Amino acid sequence: MARAACSSVVTALSLLPSKSHHLLRNQFSFSGKSNKFVGVLTLERRCFSSTVSMSLKAGIVGLPNVGKSTLFNAVVENGKAQAANFPFCTIEPNVGIVAVPDSRLQVLSKLTNSQKVVPASIEFVDIAGLVKGASQGEGLGNKFLSHIREVDSILQVVRCFEDNDIVHVNGKVDPTSDIDVINLELIFCDLDQIGKRLDRLNKGKPKDSQSKVKEEAEKSALQRIQEALLDGKPARSVALNDLEKDAVKHLCLLTMKPMIYVANVAETDLADPDKNSFVQQVKALSSDLQSGHVVVSAQVESELTELPLDERTEYLNSLGVSESGLGNLIRATYSLLGLQTYFTSGEKETRAWTIHAGMTAPQAASVIHSDFEKGFIRAETVAYEDFVSAGSLAAARDKGLLRSEGKEYIVKEGDVMLFRFNV
Ligand SMILES: Nc1ncnc2c1ncn2[C@@H]1O[C@H](COP(=O)(O)OP(=O)(O)OP(=O)(O)O)[C@@H](O)[C@H]1O
Ligand SMILES: [Mg+2]
């Protein structure tokens, strides 16, 4: 599902400076028939999570000193503040779990007198700065590219604020060039991996006819992705059928991951960010790349977390805005991942559960516990709006709004559910 959200057609060559394009063709020259690329990278094999759980990860990437850690700290602090009883934890210094803001939770918990509220969550990972040449080991190089491989979606922070005291690695603020540098490194990394994989596929012999079909699908997909990458386009821009998608999944290609561009602006630009030409560049590029974009001021967000809750609105109003940009950023990340929410609500707790769009009722039940899926009998389901208008599950049942659904039922956004199961 995450992939469905990012299968886009991109007119990317026009987005890359022509020198980047030459660079691609030069650095990754074919060696003979074997489709082998010149260029070496070592990458860890760990992949991003494919099941839905607490571990859906969004990686914050960008050039050094563009505000990634400032944003990360603000998001993590804010997530903690928004949900006092949410089991917030910092797994490592640069990984934090953040609550997805959802006003429906409070409404449901009031109606059912819940003792606690548990929101959906996303894991944010603050990845160190990526520099030009990272795919060839520059800066902290490959290590960071391997960290990106482990996330489900990418938030690319782009510096849109001017400040002579804060060094820009390339000497000046230039969002288009900054985005090119990052995207090219991701492309180089994918090209290298695909080259190696094609080489192996071309040398090896499939075990049986089933593996042969899969390997053919993989080869065909990889060759098309390789061409796209050489033209400066991300892997997600290549249309793949289900078999091909499945066959290339194990490679965890970096440019297959959905991306949101985060324009990091000065506090003075928050009230009317469109006036800032840097923001305009980010917006235009992100829409050409069919990716999302969000405007935030990491600096303001981090200052907000230092203030008591009642002073935050006052501060935001003094900057000409009504709310923090982090809620937007978190929600955009959630929907970019193709995720949706269903609720369970009772006296003990009201809880938001995260599933991929398109999951059936037993699959959705398995997010709570695998026994719920194994022993699934039926799901009693009511739409959020119907639950609220009826006022309780019992009232919804009386009014005929509560439906009894079987194994085939595709769960809808906002369903309030009760599972019947046998163990
Ligand atoms: N919107 C903003 N306006 C002004 N200053 C900002 C803004 N966002 C971040 N900064 C400042 O930019 C500097 C660099 O920020 P930060 O350390 O978060 O960058 P980084 O991308 O994490 O860098 P690195 O890659 O080195 O880890 C800090 O001094 C921070 O306060
Ligand atoms: Mg940092």
UniProtKB/TrEMBL annotation:
Pfam families documented for this protein: MMR_HSR1, YchF-GTPase_C
GO molecular function ontology, one term from the record: GTP binding
Cofactor: Mg(2+)
Segments forming domain TGS: 338-421
Top-level taxon of origin: Eukaryota
Every OBG-type G domain range: 56-316
Positions of transmembrane segments: none
Chief place of localization: cytoplasm
Binding site for ATP: 65-70, 265
Keywords (A to Z) from UniProt: ATP-binding, Cytoplasm, Hydrolase, Metal-binding, Nucleotide-binding
Annotated InterPro entries: ATPase_YchF/OLA1 (IPR004396), Beta-grasp_dom_sf (IPR012675), G_OBG (IPR031167), GTP-bd (IPR006073), P-loop_NTPase (IPR027417), TGS (IPR004095), TGS-like (IPR012676), TGS-like_dom_sf (IPR023192)
GO cellular component: cytoplasm
Locations listed in the record: Cytoplasm
CDD domains in the record: TGS_YchF_OLA1, YchF
HAMAP family referenced in this protein's UniProt entry, alphabetically: YchF_OLA1_ATPase
Family as reported in the entry's similarity comment: Belongs to the TRAFAC class OBG-HflX-like GTPase superfamily. OBG GTPase family. YchF/OLA1 subfamily.
Function in brief: Hydrolyzes ATP, and can also hydrolyze GTP with lower efficiency. Has lower affinity for GTP.
Record text on subunit structure and interactions: Monomer.
Protein name: Obg-like ATPase 1
Organism: Brassica napus
